[in-house]
Amino acid sequence: MRPMNLKNNWEFNVLQIYNYKNLGKLEGYFKFISDNFDILDGDICEIGVFRGYSLIATAMLLKELGSDKKVWGFDSFSGFPTYHENDDLLKFNYLYSKGEISLKHYEDFQLNMQHKEFVSGGSLSPSNISTSKDFSETSLSTLEKKIDYLGLDNIILVDGDYKNTMNDSLKAKFMTVLMDCDLYESHAIAFPFTWERLTPGGYIYLDEYYSLKFPGARIATNDFFVDKSEKPEMYPLKSMDFERWFITKNLNKV
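RESULT FIELD:
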C-alpha cells in the first residue's frame, strides 16, 4: 500500500497532523531531517507521542524524501506518571531566582498562570495546566489505525513506562530526537538513553525547554548537560513569538 499524500492544509488539520510543508514551530526540526537524512546515520526518535501529531508528520516526510529510516515513538499512552518535585509550578520562581530563565520568560509564565486560572476557574497543577490535561485522553489502537489509514510502515511504537522501555536491549541509533515528554523524570530517563544513541552531528529538538507550564523540562535538561560541552541553543525568533531550542551533538563525539 502506497502512503497517502496529503496536499491541502485542511487535510492535515482534519487528521490532526502537523503540516511539515508549512512554516511553524517545528520548521527547524523538519529542516534538519531534510538536510541530513542522507548524511547522518540513524533513525528518528520521538519521546512523547500522544496522538501522533508530529510523529506521523515525520514518517510522511521520510517517505516523501525517499528515505528508509524509521521513526521510533516512545510513550506510555496512559498519561503522566508520578510527578517529581521539580514539576511543581513554583519551580519557575526558582529558575528565575537562579538566573536560568529570563525576566520575559518569568513574566510570560505568570501571565499564562493568570489566564489559565481565569479560564479554568480553579487552581492549577502539572495535571491540568495543559490544554491536553495529563495526556491520558489518547488511545494506542486509535493511533495505530491512523497510521494504517495513511499507509505508513516506517513507524515503530514503543508502549510502556520509560523506565522499562529505554534499556540496553534496544540497539537503535538516532540522527534526530524530538524531546516532548514534559516532566522532569521523563527527561531524566530519556536524555541518557537518547544521547548515547545519538549520532555525532545529530540533533535534539527541546519542545519544552521554553515552557510556561513544565519547569521540570528545563531543570532536567540543564542537569544533564551541566558537565557537557554541548549546551541548548535558541533559534532566531524571526516572526515567532515563542522561543524554540535545540542541542547538536559535537561531531568529535565517539
